[in-house]
């Protein structure tokens, strides 16, 4: 069936194809709250082995894996260092405050990527006036940074700051495989560097639901308790875990295509008169700015009228996200439409 529109709002719009659906249908299941779902157990073993971490926990969403991680790493009143545009800070409904009674210390950084020096400078001294700094959260790739990637040198430096100051280091790896594929990295690097990692299966990997939280065995045992308390204990979750396993086995390498498609869109945008600036894409996200006088909501409505769906990330900023369900042909069509649609301010 030919899709009615080209969906560039988010990589969360992907739907399971026939292969994934067959894998889901054939999944062997049990009650995962009892630890008896063989497919969930297989997924958890697969991801922990891939990253070289001791244990894993399958959860309904990336918000939940991040929130469980924050809860497990902190105590009420603690401070969490993150980027000012981090998902854990701006897109999780105030969960850090509500679920963990922790407060964020948001830092402003170019492309959503923190530097070791600014992290170190933000650590509170041992002073009764100050919240105890306990945790640093990095996001790789950075969503609001435009799918930007940390270098391993930058992550190593931040990890060293955490080690010297006895802070935990969590990775929001909602799009970690985009970074791994784009930079030719080894997932084991991340297992060595971070105390905990959240991996999304339902972004560009194409699973309908699910994220995996990784950490040390005892820590994941505590995380499992928190997951139950948050209402995230699922029963025959093997049907969903099967989708995740299928995604990991089939859809990682192809993320390269999404990156190529993002580059094609960026190249087209560079030439257009109604684009003020294009942020050079590193992975599957293209951010671009509109000129003064053209509001993002008015702009996206004009694209949508021609079957092109884009998201606004601010009054003058637009986001395109490429993914499994945007074909090469659709990207070519999108590039043609961008040149043809008469945009008015
Ligand atoms: C999508 C996303 C998440 C998790 O979102 P859910 O919709 O809860 O799965 C976490 N972090 C980042 C950076 C994301 O883009």
Outline the structure in words.
- The protein is of the alpha/beta class.
- 41% of the residues lie in helices and 17% in strands.
- It folds into two domains: 18-250, Aspartate Aminotransferase, domain 2, CATH 3.40.640.10; 254-340, Aspartate Aminotransferase, domain 1 (Alpha-Beta Complex).
- The chain has helices at residues 18-25, 38-51, 62-73, 87-90, 95-100, 116-121, 152-164, 176-183, 187-193, 217-229, 238-250, 255-270, 296-304, 328-340; strands spanning 6-7, 55-59, 79-83, 103-107, 133-139, 168-173, 196-200, 211-215, 277-279, 285-289, 308-309, 311-314, 317-321.
- The strands form three sheets. It has a seven-stranded mixed beta sheet, sandwiched between helices. A four-stranded antiparallel beta sheet has the order 9-10-13-12, with helices on one face. A two-stranded parallel ribbon has the order 1-11.
- Helix 7 (152-164) links the parallel strand 5 (133-139) and strand 6.
- The mean pLDDT is 97.
- The structure holds pyridoxal-5'-phosphate (PLP).
- The site of pyridoxal-5'-phosphate has 13 residues, from helix 3.
Tally of DSSP β-strands:
13
> What is the 3D shape?
globular
**CATH architecture title of the largest domain:** 3-Layer(aba) Sandwich
Class derived from helix and strand content: alpha/beta
Fraction in beta strands = 15-25%
How many distinct helices? 14
**Helicity, as a percent range:** 40-55%
Distance between the termini: 35 Å
CATH class division of the largest domain: Alpha Beta
Average of the residue pLDDT scores: 97
Spans of at least 5 consecutive residues whose pLDDT stays below 50 are: none
């Amino acid at each position: 069936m030919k899709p009615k529109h080209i969906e560039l709002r988010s990589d969360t719009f992907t739907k399971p194809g026939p292969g994934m659906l067959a894998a889901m249908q054939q999944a062997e299941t049990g009650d995962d709250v009892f630890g008896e779902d063989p497919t969930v157990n297989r997924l958890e073993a697969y991801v922990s082995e891939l990253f070289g971490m001791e244990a894993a926990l399958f959860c309904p969403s990336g918000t939940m894996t991040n929130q469980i991680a924050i809860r497990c790493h902190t105590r009420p009143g603690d401070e969490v260092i993150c980027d000012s545009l981090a998902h854990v800070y701006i897109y999780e409904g105030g969960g850090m405050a509500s679920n963990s009674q922790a407060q964020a210390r948001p830092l402003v950084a170019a492309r959503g990527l923190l530097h070791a020096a600014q992290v170190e400078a933000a650590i509170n001294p041992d002073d009764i006036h100050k919240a105890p700094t306990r945790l640093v959260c990095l996001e790789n790739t950075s969503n609001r940074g435009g799918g930007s990637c940390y270098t391993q040198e930058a992550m190593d430096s931040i990890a060293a700051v955490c080690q010297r100051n006895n802070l935990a280091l969590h990775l929001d790896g909602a799009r970690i495989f985009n970074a791994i594929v784009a930079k030719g990295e080894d997932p084991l690097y991340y297992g060595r560097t971070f105390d905990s990692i959240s991996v999304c299966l339902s972004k560009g990997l194409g699973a309908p639901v699910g994220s995996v939280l990784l950490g040390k065995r005892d820590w994941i045992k505590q995380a499992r308790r928190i997951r139950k308390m948050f209402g995230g204990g699922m029963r025959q979750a093997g049907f969903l875990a099967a989708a995740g396993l299928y995604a990991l086995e089939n859809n990682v390498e192809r993320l390269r295509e999404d990156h190529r498609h993002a580059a094609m869109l960026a190249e087209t945008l560079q030439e257009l008169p109604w684009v003020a600036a294009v942020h050079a894409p590193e992975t599957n996200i293209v951010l671009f700015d509109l000129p003064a006088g053209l509001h993002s909501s008015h702009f996206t409505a004009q694209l949508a009228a021609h079957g092109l769906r884009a998201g606004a990330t601010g009054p003058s900023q637009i986001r395109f996200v490429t993914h499994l369900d945007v074909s090469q042909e659709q990207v070519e069509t999108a590039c043609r439409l961008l040149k043809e649609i008469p945009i008015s301010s």
